[in-house]
Amino acid sequence: MVDIPRHKQGAREPGLIPMINVVLLLLVFFLVAGSIEKFEVLHVDLPVAKNGKMLPEGQVVIVLGMQKEILINDEFVSPGDFIATMKEQLKDHKDKIISLRADERLPATFLIAIMNQIKNAGGNNISLTTTPF
Amino acid sequence: MIEIERQLRKSKSIPLISLIDVVFQLLIYFMLSTSFTRSESLELALPSDAPKHLEIGRGKEDAQTLHIYISNTGETFLEKQSVGEHELLGELRSRLAINPDRGILLLSANEVPVQVMVRVLDRIYTAGGKNIAVADWVMPPGGSHG
């Protein structure tokens, strides 16, 4: 029977408290620095721009898919119902921030037509979401 | 007596292994669900926000307004001249240096993708353009600037 000294046995154990400290620090980092990814109803590749500004996310988010799909606040809308739905969204106050998330491959004229319809529905505070260069 | 004391002491201590398990689970959840991608926005003027003279087809277009056209092939025209992307930046800078509030109307042909329009918009912003409006443009049958 070999008698191993007690202090040697202790030295082999991982330092549990520093490990917990590190893990908690990582946890706090992810909690503070990241933002939880929202489930995307429709994936769009946003256009790239150098001069984009960090603006608050719109109160009305319009997603325009590559195949000309239209989503208003994550709900599919047919082109015929677009103006009516926008009027409904803007009935409380017309100055709501409207974020347009358009796929980079979508024809620009479709985006312009949507902008004209927003104008007809009474919206005026509009921004086009981009990704930084 | 000693046995009871030992058991009491054991029940008082925090179960460290379970705590680590929970913390690890949370850590993995946040690592997987967190995104660091950020999106920015370009402020766009609706045609109604633009001065009346920027609205095309009204017959009263201001001579001061700069017209930039993007053809279906992605070619850009400043007024009637075909310009490359770098040329466009230089030209816009020199014209906006005289009058920074000059209106700019960006006209896109029907097959121009959003990315191409945004790239030109980006150039205009880089050159210092402020008063920007966008509109669609029906290309003449010849395919070149009309």
What can you tell me about this protein's structure?
- The complex is a heterodimer of chains A (133) and B (146).
- Helices cover 35% and strands 21% of the residues of chain A.
- Chain A has 133 residues and is an alpha/beta fold.
- Chain A has a domain at 48-132: Nucleotidyltransferase, domain 5 (2-Layer Sandwich), CATH 3.30.420.270.
- In chain A, helix 4 (108-121) links the parallel strand 6 (97-102) and strand 7.
- In chain A, helix 3 crosses helix 4.
- The mean pLDDT of chain A is 83.
- Mean pLDDT of chain B is 76; it is low at 48-61.
- In chain B, helix 3 (85-98) crosses helix 4.
- Chain B folds into 2 domains: 2-33; 52-136, Nucleotidyltransferase, domain 5, CATH 3.30.420.270.
Brief summary:
The complex is a heterodimer of chains A (133) and B (146). Chain A has helices spanning 6-12, 16-33, 82-89, 108-121; strands at residues 35-36, 48-49, 60-64, 70-72, 75-76, 97-102, 125-132. With 133 residues, chain A is of the alpha/beta class.
Which two chains form the greatest contact, residue counts included? A-B, 50 and 45 residues
How many separate structural domains of chain B? 2
- The total of helices of chain B stands at 4
| Termini gap of chain B | 102 Å
Q: What is the overall pLDDT average of chain B?
A: 76
Keywords:
heterodimer; A: 133 residues; alpha/beta; Nucleotidyltransferase, domain 5; six-stranded mixed sheet; elongated; B: 146 residues; 2 domains; five-stranded mixed sheet; 4 helices; 7 strands
Topology:
The complex is a heterodimer of chains A (133) and B (146).
Chain A: H1 6-12, H2 16-33, E1 35-36, E2 48-49, E3 60-64, E4 70-72, E5 75-76, H3 82-89, E6 97-102, H4 108-121, E7 125-132
Parallel strand pairs in A: 2-7, 3-6, 6-7
Antiparallel strand pairs in A: 3-4, 4-5
Helix pairs in contact in A: 3-4
Chain B: H1 2-12, H2 16-33, E1 34-35, E2 40-43, E3 66-70, E4 76-78, E5 81-83, H3 85-98, E6 104-108, H4 114-127, E7 132-136
Parallel strand pairs in B: 3-6, 6-7
Antiparallel strand pairs in B: 3-4, 4-5
Helix pairs in contact in B: 3-4
